[in-house]
Amino acid sequence: MTETSRRKFLAATGVGVAAAGTLGIAGVAQARPGERAAREQVLAYVPNHRRAEIRLLVGEREVVVQDRDLVARLLNAAGGQ
User: Fold this and answer.
1) Type and span of the H or E element at 79
2) CA-CA-CA-CA torsion sign (67, 72, 73, 75)
3) Per-residue pLDDT tens digits for 31-52
4) Which of 11, 63, 67, 75 counts the most CB atoms within 10 A of its CB?
5) Residue 25 CB-density burial (10 A; 0-12 exposed, 13-18 middle, 19+ buried)
6) Where are the alpha helices (DSSP H) in the chain?
């Protein structure tokens, strides 16, 4: 995702808070952040659930994570089918 489209996406939707709420619903809130945890808003999006890929937008960075269980929990929390 390019910087321009990412910024437009974040500005248009304000989903940083929504993503955090979705993660809490999914049961991740029980985990404790480590010393190296992000200190800024994090937006998670799943571009293709079949690849079990999650892209995390953290400030100006993009982090790609492969986690089939987390993808399933996010989709279930969001009402995905």
Assistant:
1) none
2) positive
3) 788 999 988 999 999 998 999 9
4) 75
5) middle
6) 3-13, 15-25, 68-77
